[in-house]
Amino acid sequence: MTLLDLQDLHVAIPTERGLLRAVRGVDLRLAAGETLCLVGESGCGKSLTAMTLMGLGPKTAQTRSGRFTLLGQEMAGRGRAAWKTLRGRGLSMIFQDPMTSLNPTLTVGRQLTEGVIHTEGLTRRAAEARAIALLERVGIARAGQRLGQYPHQFSGGQRQRLMIAMALMSEPKFLIADEPTTALDVTIQAQILSLLAGLQRDLGLGLLLITHDLGVVAAIADRVAVMYAGRIVEEGSASRIFRRPAHPYTAGLMAAIPVPGRTPRGTPLPAIPGRVPGLIEPIAGCAFCERCARGETLCAARPPSDVALPDGRVECHFPAVEIVQ
Amino acid sequence: MTRANHVPALELEHVGKHFRVLQGMFRRPATLTALNDLSLQVMPGETLGLVGESGCGKSTAVNVMLGLLAPDEGRVFLDGREIGAWPLAERVRRIQPVFQDPYSSLNPTRRVGELVAQPLRLHERGTDPGPRMREMLDRVGFPVRLADAYPAELSGGQRQRVAIARALIARPKVLICDEPTSALDVSVQAQVINLLLELRAELGLTMVFVSHNLAVVEHLADRVAVMYLGEKVEEAPVAPLFAAPRHPYTRALLGATLRPEPGAALPESGLGTASADPLHRGPGCAFAPRCPMANDACRKAPVPMHRHGQHLARCLCAGPA
Predict the structure, then answer these.
(1) Is residue B315 assigned to a domain?
(2) Interface contact A150, partner B, CB < 8 A
(3) What structural domains and CATH numbers belong to chain A?
(4) How many CA atoms lie within 13 A of A227 on its CB side?
(5) pLDDT tens digits, residue range A220-262?
C-alpha cells in the first residue's frame, strides 16, 4: 500500500529579504513497511518537507504541489484543517528534542492518553491500558507507576522512548521521525534506533526518517533520498547509494566523513569546498554547481534533468556514469 | 632531547571538582562529582583526544584546563607552572579555547575584526592590531572583506573560522578544542578539521580535542582519554585504543558507534537502558551499574588505574580485547 505519493512540492516562506524558496520541487513516495531516510545538511529543506507532510508547516508558508496523496487521501491544495483528521488517525511524528515537545507541567500519562481519548473516544482506562502496553514495549519498566510522573523524572533516553510511545498511541501507519536520536549519546542512540527498527518491522509501519547522520542511514534505511538546496538530488536503495553514489554531492558527503581504515589518520579530508547557495535568488542551473568538481558551463545555465537509475533517480548533468549505464 | 621537552605543556594532577546541586526546596543539596581524580599530561606538540558522553565531565575538564574553574582537589600546570600563578595576559598567550557553538561564544554586538583582535589588546597595547588581524583571518580562510560583518551575518563554518582566528592570534602554544565541529554540517566539518590539521602542523600546536564524535577524534588525536562520570576510565595511544580497547565502557562506546557503511547492522551495546547518573554513584566503579562484566568487587571500593601494555584502564576486569 502506498502511504505517500507526493509530486513537485514547493514551499516558499516570506522573509524580510524576500521569498525564501526552501523546498523547490520535491517528489517522495513511501510504501507500507518501508524505511526511507531523507538526508541532507542544515537548511536543505528536509525538516520543512516533513512538517509540510504533517500539515504543520509555518502559517506564512506558500505551499503548492502536484499530486499529494497521503494515506489514500488527496491533500493538494487542502488547508490545515484537513490534516487534523489524519494526525492521530494513521499519521504521526517523533520530534528531535523531547524536552520541547513534552509538556513539563502535565503527567506523562495525561500526555500519552489525551489524544486518543479525544480522537477515538476511548475511556481513560482503555487509553491508559494502551499507554502502559506501549511504554513496556519501548522499554520503560514499571510503566503503570510511571504514568503519574512528569517528563523531568525521566532521563534523556527515556524521554525519547516516551516520544516514540506517544507517536504510536494512535496506532499510525505512517511515522515521520525528525532527527530522533541527534540529541542522544551514542550508546543510547543505538538502543533507540533498534527500537524504532523493531517497531517498524513488527507493525509494518512506513517510516520516513529525517537525519543528517549517514551512520544512522546505513543502520536503518531501505531507501535514501539525498536533499540539497530544496531538491532531492538523488534517490535510491541504501546499499547502492553507499557503494556507488551517482550524484557528486552524495559522493562528497560520503567522502567528507572520517571513516577509520579509509581515511589515513591526520591527513586532510576530502571536504566539499564552499557553502550552500542562498535560496532567495532564483537558481538558474544546478544548485550544487559552484561546489562541484564536475561542474561545467552547462551546469550553471540549465537545471539538470532527471536521470533514471535501476533503483531510483539522480538529478545531474554528469552523474557517475557506470551507474547510469 | 632537551629538558624542556620533558615538561608537559599541560598537566592535570589528581584533579577533583564537585558541585552542590539543589534538589527542590525541602531536600538537602546533593554533591555532584564532576571530576574525580583526573590526571592528564599533554606533551608539547601532542594532541590529546578526550571522549565521553554527556555528563562525563568533559566540559568541566576544559574549564579547569583553561583556568576558568579552580579545582577543588589537585593541581593544574601550564608549561610546568601552576596555572593560577601565571598572570592573566601570560596565560591567554599560552592557552586558548575554541568552543562548540560559535553562535554563543562570539559577542554578537562586535564585528569580526574586533573579535579576532581582542586577545591582542591584553598585552600589545598601542600597536595597531589591524595587520595581524587581517593576516590571521586570511590564514584561516575567512574572507578579509567580511571583517566588518557581525557574527549573525555569517554561516556556522565561517563563525568557527573566526573563533579559530581569535584563538590563534596571540600565538598560543596550547589550543583547547571543545567539540569544535559538532555544530557543523558534515561538509563544513571536514573543512574545519582540515584547517585545524594545517594549523597544528604549521604552528606546532599542542592540542586537547574534546568530542563525542569518535571518528573525528581517531582522525586527529595522538593519544585518547575516555571519560565516564567524571573519571578517566581508559587512556592509550590512538591506534591501540581503537584497535583493542580494554575498558568495557570504551568497548561499549566503540561498539555503539554507527559506521556510515552499507549493510552495517545496528550495534548491540550490551549496556542496560539505565543512564549514567552522577548524583547517585556507589562507592565502587562508576560504570558498574551498566557494566556487563561487573561483579561484587567492582561495586565495593574505588577502582584504581592499572597499566595493561600501552593502556591505562580503571577496571578490575580489563583484559585483552
Answers:
(1) yes
(2) no
(3) 2-80+172-261+270-284 (3.40.50.300), 104-169 (no CATH)
(4) 30
(5) 999 999 999 999 999 999 999 999 999 999 999 999 988 877 8
